[in-house]
Design goal:
Rossmann fold, 14 strands, binds flavin-adenine dinucleotide
């Protein structure tokens, strides 16, 4: 077991955020002789290049994702929702657990087991594929097809412990379950590496600090929380030895005008391509997708399938009246794609990640930001401020175009 406790109630974490938080504890690794960082293309970091602003609510549950089985009339519902900011990062592993539970309920009657999946986001698609791989005949029922789900508004980083549980309210067994989900997901995503369309890649990330000399052209956007919301101690976990570790670059080797640069190679989901690939794979293996909205659990009993996996994400709050499900709002400003810039960075509490479908610019500096907020209205002022915080790292387009 390699989930490591960082303190009595926290375990150590991974991912880009983890790399940032773990900097102080990580001993410097000397650069190999002859190492020089690759030249990078500057990102055109200007509000005028925004192509869309997306907002969504992370489905956070203090006890972690819901994976129990509920009886609704004659139907058995296996829940698979509530993955906070880690839906893509825990998808395959969580869905394998849900699919095994569903298969165990199908019995031994003739013909392949028949199972329904509700929802077509990260958890719905991976549940449907896991079921198919276990030999089931599967229909997905969903209000929105994959391209229109909240999952499409994710950053696209492997962040398996992002807002996944409240350290004060999670069970002692959860870290082991989390490890199982994280390991299986990390391994299964890697089966898509190097395949057509690059749905999953590893990209360079730069973690930047020590920028006192750089101008500040914007103030951080205000932290939003719902009135009366209780503080949450978000649980943090790390899997030692699974993902590459960050290492420091000397100032002379950094492509950025800051004093401290760390670099790491991190898993990236090109979410538009990945969701399209999963949907195509599901359909090509005989899966069916039907557009359907369910207003109450009893509606599920009208389906021909009596075994159902519920992957409705934040939608489960209304559908199953889950009072434990807390929205955690997050906004991304998307800049026009720049295929020549194939990296990400973290600076002044902002995450930037270049993807084929746009460049993610997202304020990620405070865990409590967006807690309890279910307003999904895009905020242009927040987008402009977030871009302004990182813009001093890059030459301005106006200066470039004026020669
Ligand atoms: C800004 C932001 C950035 C993020 N970045 C990352 C990241 O980098 N990495 C990561 O791993 N995670 C990230 N996440 C978290 C991730 O997006 C979620 O955990 C994930 O999308 C949840 O997926 P889901 O399939 O459970 O839900 P959803 O994507 O919301 O899908 C729910 C499905 O259920 C359907 N549905 C809902 N209610 C009903 C109903 N009543 N009837 C019929 N159908 C219904 C919907 O139509 C949809 O098809 C991020 C989240 C935010 C907000």
């Amino acid at each position: 077991m390699s989930v490591v406790s960082r303190s009595s109630r926290r375990a150590v974490l991974t991912g880009l955020a983890g790399t940032v938080a773990g900097c102080a504890a990580t001993p410097p690794v000397p650069l190999a002789a002859g190492f020089a960082p690759r030249r990078i293309a500057p990102i055109l970091m200007e509000p005028e290049r925004i192509i869309r602003i997306t907002v969504c609510t992370r489905p956070f549950r203090p006890a972690g994702p819901r994976l129990d089985v509920e009886t609704v009339g004659e139907s058995k519902v296996v829940h698979n929702y509530g993955h906070g900011g880690s839906g893509w990062s825990l998808s395959w592993g969580s869905s394998a657990i849900a699919a095994r539970k569903a298969m165990a309920l199908t019995g031994v009657a003739g013909g392949p087991p028949v199972v329904a999946v509700i929802g077509s986001g990260a958890l719905g698609l991976t549940s449907a594929l896991q079921l198919q791989r276990m030999g089931a005949r599967v229909t997905i029922y969903a209000r929105e097809r994959a391209a229109f789900t909240r999952s499409m508004r994710a950053t696209g980083s492997w962040t398996p412990d992002s807002r996944i549980a409240d350290a004060d309210r999670v069970s002692a067994e959860f870290p082991a379950l989390w490890e199982q989900m994280a390991r299986e997901t990390y391994a299964t995503h890697q089966t898509y590496l190097g395949t057509e369309g690059d749905p999953v890649v590893f990209s360079d990330r730069y973690i930047l600090s020590g920028a006192a000399d750089l101008p500040r052209t914007a103030e951080p956007p205000p932290i939003r929380t719902a009135p009366g919301v209780k503080p949450i101690t978000f649980a943090e976990y790390r899997l030692d030895g699974l993902a590459p570790r960050s290492f420091p670059l000397p100032v002379s080797a950094s492509p950025f005008p800051v004093r401290e640069t760390r670099m790491v190679s991190a898993m990236q989901f090109n979410v538009a391509e990945l969701a399209h690939r999963l949907e195509t794979e599901f359909l090509s293996q005989g899966g069916r997708i039907e557009t359907r909205t369910f207003n109450a659990p009893a509606d599920l009993t009208t389906l021909p399938e009596k075994i159902v996996i519920n992957c409705t994400g934040y939608g489960a709050k209304a559908l199953f009246e889950d009072k434990d499900l807390i929205p955690v709002r997050g906004q991304i400003a998307w800049l026009a794609p720049q295929p020549e810039a194939n990296y990400g960075l973290h600076f002044r509490g902002v995450t930037v990640l270049s993807r084929p479908d746009g460049i993610v610019v997202q304020a990620t500096r405070n865990d409590m930001n967006g807690v309890g907020v279910d307003d999904e209205t895009p905020d242009r002022a927040e987008a402009n401020a977030t871009i302004g915080l990182v813009a001093p790292l890059f030459p301005s387009i106006r200066r470039l175009s004026s020669g």
